[in-house]
Structure formats: structure tokens, C-alpha cells
Automatic annotation (TrEMBL):
CDD domains reported for this sequence: PBP1_XylR (cd01543)
Entry keyword Transcription regulation: yes
Protein name as annotated: XylR family transcriptional regulator
Lineage: Bacteria, Pseudomonadati, Verrucomicrobiota, Verrucomicrobiia, Verrucomicrobiales
One example GO MF annotation: DNA-binding transcription factor activity
Organism: Roseibacillus persicicus
Ranges of residues in domain HTH araC/xylS-type: 291-390
Transmembrane regions listed in the UniProt entry: none
Amino acid sequence: MSSVPKIAVVYPASIPWMGQFLDGIRRFSGPLGGWRLYTTPPALASTGERTLAISSLVGWQGDGVIAVVSNEEEAREARLLKVPIVNISSWEKESFGFPRVGVDNFQAGRLAADHLLSRGLKNLAFIGWDGVYYSDLRRMGFIGRAHELGSEVSELLKHPNEFDEENWGQRLRVLSHWIHQLPKPCGVFAVHDYRAQLVIDACDVAGVRVPQDVAVIGMDNDVIICRHSMPTITSISRNSEEVGWQAAALLHRLMEGNADLAKDEEIRVPPECVVARESTDTHYHGDEVVRVSIRYIENRLRYPFNVEEVANHVGVSKRKLEMRFRDCVGKSPHQFITEARVARARELLNRPGGQSLQVISENCGFVSYSAFVSSFKRVTGVSPKEARNQKTTGEISEL
């Protein structure tokens, strides 16, 4: 191996989360002296240059490859390179003989269901790919969690080739017809953010309000789509930096000669969080007291207050409020308040040129800095300082 390892990272240029993935590789390789990365920047496709592909690496004198290996042809080309390879594709269930790293798509589905159900929704729906592994996993996690909590799920599955054959108008007509038939109010989990955008467009065609009639959540947290949609789209952040770190760590093990240790290994990284935006920004709880309480809490997160103050605002006893919260939301009002404060803290932590941790603590209504640190670590598993060092996106996180 050369003094500075040469690593190729091969992926479709259109993947929105690869910047964070590459950050994770850098974070792992930095303490080792760094790796020289060969990859395709997203802007390359518009310059007329060819994107990096496994087939184009023939003759390349490198040390390892992290690649999207989605079919047998790509696998054959990868084996010809005679270097350690980590697969980051979840298109097929088969990993083609390479160790694989990716987001835990099953858990992502469960997270989407929890988010929609926490809004008080009883009717859920899923729209995704038919026969695509990552879509199957997200669907199974979503439906399984919904069934655990007593909800049924409507589905619309399409084969990718079938979707490609439809023009824009056909796509919207099919979706608007499906949406029109869904029981309302309904929460829809779209397999990725582009599909979530199509659902919102189809709702507009069908005369269905988002989020009042249909709440929509996507996956990938593609900020180009999510921030510029109307309404903006709630999405699941993949934890792509951690996926990159884990892929680099596994490749390092292979390059160090631990082939048997990593053979056929699959590492699934839990998704980071729900990035809550306007497409799910409402509550459907049948209990008016709970709805008013949640709105009061969300509007006053920057100020210190306790459960007693919320109970006084809605005109019930603390005990009554706790019982009604547990019935409707599945958690105590104290837990709901704490998680909402931590979610706001994560938003502030991730903003460029952000505030100091002390100021963030004060702006999230924590009674003390120590309470902020302990609450944050209890909810997220890391300290505020660790979270700031790890995260690069600037969106509110629902925990």
C-alpha cells in the first residue's frame, strides 16, 4: 500500500447525501494521516466530463474502493480491480459478495410511522418502489410499526420501469386518484423526497390540503427538494456522515488484511432523525386539551416553564393532563417538553456560525446549563458538544 492510501468512491452523481457521506470518510481517515479520494463531484455531470464508474477504474493503481454495486455486471467489474471493496448499495437484497454498509431502512420506516402517529393520525399510507430492497425494508418497518400501534396502512407500489414510462401528467393523475381514495386525515410516507414532492403536487391537483388533510414525510432530507417545496417537506435524515465513517472503517479493516473478519458483513446505521417541516406541521389528536397544550408548548420553547403551567393554561389538573397526554401521544407531557426543547437545540446547534452552547441552552428554555447537557445526552445519546462536532446540516430535528 502507498504511504497515502488511494481510495475511489463510486456513486451516481445525483445522490443528494454524498457530501455528508464523504465527510464521514474524511472524519475516519483523518487521524490515520488521510486518504486521497477519487470521486465524482455532483457538479461534474454538467461539465461534459464522464462520471467515475467501476468500469473506468481498470488500470487504476489504488488501494480500496467504496462503491454502489447494484447488479452482477458491476460486481464482475469490481472483482477485476483486485482491491478491497465495500458496497454501499441497497437496491438489491444481494450484496454480490462484498461487505455492505448503509442506513437501516427498516428503522427508517418505523421512525416515519412514529412521527406520523405522534401527530395523532390513525390512517397511514406508503408509496414506494415494488421489488427494490431499500423500499421493501422501509415499507416493512413502516407497516410493522403501524400495526403494533393499531393502525392500518394503504399502499401504492410501482416498479421503477413502470414509473419511468409515465409522463408528468400521468404520474399526477395516478397519484391524485389514489390520494382521493385515502381515508382522511391521513399520513403518507413516501420512499424518498422526490416521491414526497409528487404526493404534494398530486394533493394540489386533487384539491386535498397538506398537512390539514394529508401529512407527508419523505426520506433523505434532500434540502433542494424539501426546502423549496410548498409546503416544505418533513423528511428523515439518513445519518450519512456516520454511514461514511462506518464504510471507511470497514474498508480500513479489509485493507489491513482482515478479510475474513469483514467477509459478507453488513452494517446498518440507524437513521439520524426526522427533520420536521411544514408538511407534517399539525396535530390530529381528538383531544382538544392535548392539541391546545402542544401548541402552547411549541410556541414557548424558548422560555422556562413546567407541566403545571401548561395544565393551568388549558384549565385541567396536572394529573389529568398527564393521563390525556399518555392516551393521545404515548408519552408524558414532561417527556414531550424535554424532547421538543432538545429538538430546538439541535436546530440551533446546526446553524452555520451558531450560538454558544450556553446561549443555546438559554434559548431553549432549560433552567440551567447542566440540565441542558443532561437532557440532550439522555435524548440523543451524545453531548451537545459532540453533536455540534458531528453534524453539518441546519434543520430542526424531531426525536
